[in-house]
């Protein structure tokens, strides 16, 4: 019986990883802001992620940090990726807590796709390369914080 439960969790993780990658694969529009980010994630049931990145909005760049987590996650990875940021009328709206859906299936090298949205309606579709060993299919929360907001609109 326990074997079937673990198999079900692996199938769910695979589905969420595939769904996240499919959603994150859509190209950025010319009006979209973009992000580059790198992070580490570890998990033993509940996962925790921390990292940093850069938001590119027109000719302006804004460094940021990201922290948070979700469930189900097992293992540890380093990830680096790029994403499209949509519905960002003001740079300060980038700050906040994002609800995420996505997943990874990594053994040595892999990919991750994560779809996120915050309370301001800002959407991020992230596609990343991963290194390590992890299986995750997550619904979680990530907190993004701009380090400099001197160019806020």
What is the compact description of this entry?
It comes from Komagataeibacter diospyri. This is Outer membrane protein. This protein is of the alpha+beta class.
Give a written overview of the molecule.
- The chain is an alpha+beta fold and 153 residues long.
- It has one domain.
- It contains 1 helix and 4 strands; from the N terminus they run αββββ.
- It has one helix at 2-24; strands spanning 33-57, 60-86, 96-118, 123-146.
- Strands 1-2-4-3 form a 4-stranded antiparallel sheet.
- Residues 1-24 form the signal peptide.
- This is Outer membrane protein.
- It comes from Komagataeibacter diospyri.
- Keywords: Signal.
Search tags:
alpha+beta, four-stranded antiparallel β-sheet, 1 helix, 153 residues, 15% helix, disordered N terminus, 4 strands
Main beta sheet: 4 strands, antiparallel
Order of helices and strands: HEEEE
Helix segment tally:
1
Estimate the global geometry from the Cα principal axes.
globular
- Count every beta strand, where a strand is a DSSP E run of 2 or more residues: 4
Q: What structural category do the secondary elements indicate?
A: alpha+beta
Please estimate the helix content: 10-25%
Rounded mean pLDDT is: 84
Q: Beta-sheet strand percentage? A: over 45%
Radius of gyration: 15 Å
Count of discrete domains: 1
Break the fold down into its secondary structure elements and pairings.
Elements: H1 2-24, E1 33-57, E2 60-86, E3 96-118, E4 123-146
Antiparallel strand pairs: 1-2, 2-4, 3-4
């Amino acid at each position: 019986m326990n074997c079937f439960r673990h198999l079900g969790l692996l199938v769910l993780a695979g589905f969420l990883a595939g769904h996240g990658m499919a959603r994150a694969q859509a190209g950025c529009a010319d009006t979209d802001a973009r992000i580059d980010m790198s992070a580490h994630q570890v998990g033993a049931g509940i996962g925790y992620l921390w990292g940093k990145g850069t938001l590119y909005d027109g000719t302006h760049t804004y460094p940021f940090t990201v922290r948070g987590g979700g469930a189900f996650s097992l293992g540890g990875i380093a990830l680096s990726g790029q994403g499209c940021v949509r519905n960002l009328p003001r740079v300060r709206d980038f700050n906040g807590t994002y609800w995420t859906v996505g997943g990874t299936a990594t053994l040595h090298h892999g990919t991750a796709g994560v779809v996120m949205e915050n309370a301001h309606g800002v959407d991020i579709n992230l596609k990343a390369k991963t290194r390590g060993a992890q299986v995750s299919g997550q619904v979680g929360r990530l907190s993004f914080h701009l380090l400099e907001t001197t160019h806020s609109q």
